[in-house]
Structure formats: C-alpha cells, structure tokens
User: Which sequence fits this backbone?
C-alpha cells in the first residue's frame, strides 16, 4: 500500500503575524518499493513535505494516508502506528544522539514501543548490522567518541531499529567528506534493495541522478515536476529558473546539442555520456 | 614580488585519543604560503586539515617544528594577539559564530575587543559589511538570515579586524547550493580585490578548483600539491585516496581509454565542449 497525499495544504502559525503558507495543494503517491528523490530550493517546502509523511506535521487542509491510517486536521490519527511504518531521518541526525552508549541510543525507539528486552537486543543488533557497524566493537561505546560519518550511521540505525517500511531521509549526506558520503549513499541503496521504500531529500543533483528512479521537484510550496528522474532533468531551463542545477554530464549534453551535435539530453552518468559521445562521433565519421 | 606570509616547518602534533593513547594528527608537515595566495586544502575527515589550520592562528601550538606568520613565530607568547588579529578564521557552523542581536553589533565584536575607538569601529564595520555584500542587513537580527548570509556576516566579523590572512574551515559544508555560491563569491572577491591571503579547507572539489594551489592531506601528511589542473588530472590517485574527481575529468579519462585524443586536464563543461568540438 502506498503513501498518498490528497490536496494537502499547510500553513505555519495560522492567524499570527508570522502566518506563512508552506504547502499548497499537494497531490502525490509514494508507492511501495520506490526510490523517490525530493529536490527544491531552500524554502520550497520540501522539508515541510517530508515531515507530513510520518505525521510530524498534520495538513491544515487535505489528508495524508499511510497504508490504512489517515492523517488530517479533523480526524484523530493513530500517529504511533504511522511512525512505526515511516522512519524519518532529519538533517544532521547525529545532533539527536543523547544516550551514554550506542546500544541505549538505538534501543530508545524500540523500548518506547514496549518491546521485550530480547526483541530490543535483536533489533539493535540488526540495525547496527544494516549500517555496517560491528555490534561487539561498538554497542558499549559512547556515541560521542565516534567520527562524524559513524555518528550519522548510528543515528540512522536508531530509525532502522523501528523496522520502518518507508524511510524518509532529509539530506543524509550533508556535511560529510567524500568517503563518508559514499558510504551512506551505498547503505541507503542497499536498504532500498532490501525492500525499504526510500524518499531522499537532497540538494545534490549528482546524488539524486545516480540513486533515484523518480524525482519530485518543489518550488514555492507546490510540486512542479513529478516524473522519471531522467525526464525531469531534461527541463534544464525551468530548473535553472527555480535556482536548481542539473547533473554536470547532463549540462555537457545540452551544450553539445547547442553546438549542433545530435546527442540525447537525458543522460545522467559519466558512463552514459561516454557512450553517447562515442556514438555521435562514429555517426559523424560515417556521414563524412 | 612574492613574499612569504606563512611558513610551516616540519610540524608535528599529537592528540590524546579516547582510548587513552596518543594519535599523531600531523606528521612533519612543511608548507609555505605566499602573500595574496589562495590555497585550498582537501582530504578526508581526520587527515589533519583542521589541525593544521588551527596552528595558523595559535589555537594550537606545535609539539615539534615551527609555524611562522608574517615573520612571527607562533610559539612566542608575545606574538599571540598580533597573530590572531592578522589571521582570521571562519568555521563550518554559522550558528556557532554569531553572538550579537544585530548584524552590525556582531561584526563590531572583534574590533571592540582590540580596543579601537568607536568612530573607527563604525568605519571598519561598514567597510567589512560592504566587502561581503551585507550592508543592507546591518540592523537585522542574525538568526533570521539564511545560512549563506550568516556565513557572510561571520566573514565580515573577521574582515573588520583588518587581517592579512583568512582561514576557512569548511565554511560551506552546511549551506545549500545558493549559500555556497554566495560564500565562495565572497572568498574569491576578498582574495582578488582585497589582496587577502586565503587558506580554504573544503570537501567540495568545485571550490578547490578556484584556488591557485591545491594541497591534499592524508593521515597527517601532505600527499599531493600543485595547481588545480595538476591535481585533478591525476584521476587514479584521487580515486585511491577516495576523493572526488570532477565529473568532466572522469569523463575525459574514460573517453581517452576508448582512444579519443583529448587534453589531459579538462576541468569544466566548457573546456570539454571546446575539446570535443575541435
């Protein structure tokens, strides 16, 4: 079953001088098993949207449906059930680490579900394994002795220990070095391959190009594009108007086309760009 | 005429690690930075970049070796405040660096602590805010600004001290693409128009490309050093170090493997277009 957003509006601090519209008439479906990217300029509403997916914010108008559970302003929602299904990893999740040991930190969520000690331990082990941290080596350490990338993995493990069906990550690689970023990206990909539905909020066009199947673009509180990632990036000019970039190789293809080359523009990776350039050069030779 | 601004000789530094042992953070680093130069330092977390940077304005002292700033040895306590005035640092998190309730008060904090007279402070603050393009925000509250604007205010706070060197420790790591561009435009401007010497630590290769010289650190040592073109054309070596390779350089490499004859140092989309259209 999918996550469905129907005519969702959200207004921050309604009735106050700070009243601000953050979401306008959002209609979306996130299907099970998908890997969806969510991009947009700062202030476009993408984080507000992400926080609607697990009921952290309730729509001012319209409704969000997560499997069997409805979240709306009018209805009393079963938020605890929703949050078991949808795990949300905030920006800089390592800022939320607080326990004395890594075990306790990851166990915090499952404990609040009222699970038995044996089940909690099982979940902590599994979650650490999923983020590639050795249980024996790490479980009794303080999370604050870890490197930035390791801390972030522990924070993600804390969400995975809730065994969510959907995982929403808000800029999971921001501020990491290239190695840390690649490790986290690879782990998210692996989680998706294991069957978890992933929604990735990101500023990195190269990352979403590489990872996602579908891309949602937010601009001024509304969804502007919602299509295959490849197709979205072919709207180069519209994206630039919104202050968004496109992957570097896609940009190259647009420039070559300007120069009269006959190349496809829906190119996302260096490997694809190579194939396309070699093909174009071969054809040119053929005609010459 | 080039004159030396910073000289680091055989610098070693150790930290106490959580397990109680010692960890070598810098392993005999030697480096010379000229006045007006723009140097980028890249490398992994833990490679020693920030430890090196903190030696440049005496936040850390060498265990062995020497650091000299504008002819002054950092070990000499007499030089401490002079060096701190001449070498300004800007850090990663904008929210940790702003302390006052308005932008102009925040920028005035440094000069006030130097004991400069109020009229002159007014002048220094106004000038610094012009430098970073934040004049129209001077009466605003810092916490209501965007990330890029906050970082520019933090830079103005350092510029108002009239430094000779600016050291940036990942100033764009927490910013969105627009904020990153605002900050980098400011960094380049301060280097080119104001003639300030810049040391810029970053994980973003597109920022390192803007520098005159790139230094790559790994395990407390300098492992590569050269112009951005020289460094980024060594695709294999960068990959071994798990560092990013600019996408055009990577494409250039695999096209060359397929027999295409291309210059070996293509950094940008435009350069690739020119090379392919020859």
Assistant:
């Amino acid at each position: 079953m999918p996550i469905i957003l129907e005519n969702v509006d959200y207004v921050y601090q309604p009735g106050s001088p700070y009243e601000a519209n953050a979401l306008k008439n959002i209609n979306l479906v996130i299907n099970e098993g998908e890997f969806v990217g969510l991009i947009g300029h700062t202030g476009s509403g993408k984080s507000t949207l992400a926080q609607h997916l697990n009921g952290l914010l309730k729509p001012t108008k319209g409704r969000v449906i997560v499997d069997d559970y409805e979240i709306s302003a009018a209805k009393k929602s079963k938020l605890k059930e929703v949050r078991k299904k949808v795990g949300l990893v905030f920006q800089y999740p390592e800022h939320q680490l607080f326990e004395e040991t890594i075990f306790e930190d990851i166990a915090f969520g499952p404990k609040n579900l009222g699970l038995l000690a044996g089940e909690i331990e099982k979940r902590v082990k599994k979650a650490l394994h999923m983020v590639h941290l050795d249980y024996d080596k790490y479980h009794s350490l303080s999370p604050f002795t870890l490197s930035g990338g390791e801390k972030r993995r522990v924070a993600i493990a804390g969400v995975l220990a809730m065994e969510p069906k959907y995982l929403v990550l808000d800029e999971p690689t921001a501020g990491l070095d290239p190695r840390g970023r690649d490790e986290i990206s690879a782990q998210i990909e692996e989680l998706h391959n294991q069957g978890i539905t992933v929604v990735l909020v990101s500023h990195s066009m190269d990352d979403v190009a590489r990872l996602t199947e579908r891309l949602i673009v937010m601009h001024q509180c509304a969804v502007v594009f919602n299509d295959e990632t490849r197709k979205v990036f072919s709207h180069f000019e519209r994206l630039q108007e919104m202050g968004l970039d496109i992957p570097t190789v896609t940009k190259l293809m647009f420039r070559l086309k300007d120069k009269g080359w006959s190349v496809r523009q829906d190119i996302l990776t260096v490997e694809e760009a190579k194939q396309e350039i070699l093909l174009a050069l071969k054809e040119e030779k053929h005609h010459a | 005429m080039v004159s030396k601004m910073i000289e680091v000789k055989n610098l070693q530094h150790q930290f106490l690690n959580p397990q109680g042992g010692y960890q070598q953070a810098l392993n005999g680093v030697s480096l010379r930075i000229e006045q007006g130069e723009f140097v980028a330092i890249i490398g992994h977390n833990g490679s020693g970049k920030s430890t090196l940077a903190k030696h440049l304005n005496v936040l850390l002292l060498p265990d062995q070796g020497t650091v000299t700033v504008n002819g002054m040895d950092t070990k000499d306590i007499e030089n401490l405040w002079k060096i701190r005035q001449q070498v300004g640092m800007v850090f990663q998190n904008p929210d940790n660096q702003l302390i006052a309730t308005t932008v102009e008060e925040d920028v005035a904090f440094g000069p006030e602590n130097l004991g400069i007279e109020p009229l002159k402070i007014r002048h220094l603050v106004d000038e610094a805010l012009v430098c970073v393009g934040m004049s129209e925000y001077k009466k605003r509250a810092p916490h209501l600004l965007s990330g890029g604007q906050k970082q520019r205010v933090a830079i103005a706070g350092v510029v108002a001290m009239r430094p000779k060197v600016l050291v940036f420790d990942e100033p764009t790591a927490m910013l969105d693409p627009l904020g990153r561009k605002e900050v980098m435009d400011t960094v380049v401007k301060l280097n080119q128009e104001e003639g300030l010497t810049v040391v810029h630590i970053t994980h973003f290769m597109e920022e390192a490309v803007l520098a005159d010289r790139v230094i790559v650190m790994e395990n407390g040592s300098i492992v590569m050093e050269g112009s951005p073109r020289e460094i980024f054309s060594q695709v294999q070596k960068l990959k071994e170090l798990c560092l990013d390779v600019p996408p055009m350089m990577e494409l250039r490499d695999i096209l060359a493997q397929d027999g295409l004859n291309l210059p070996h140092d293509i950094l940008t989309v435009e350069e690739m277009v020119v090379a392919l259209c020859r």
Remarks:
- Residues 247-288 of chain A form one domain.
- Chain A touches chain B at residues 41-42, 145, 147-149, 174-180, 182, 203, 206, 243-245, 247-249, 251-252, 255-256, 259, 261, 270-271, 273-274, 277-278, 281 (CB under 8 Å).
- The first strand of chain A starts at residue 3 and ends at 12.
- Chain A has twelve helices and ten strands.
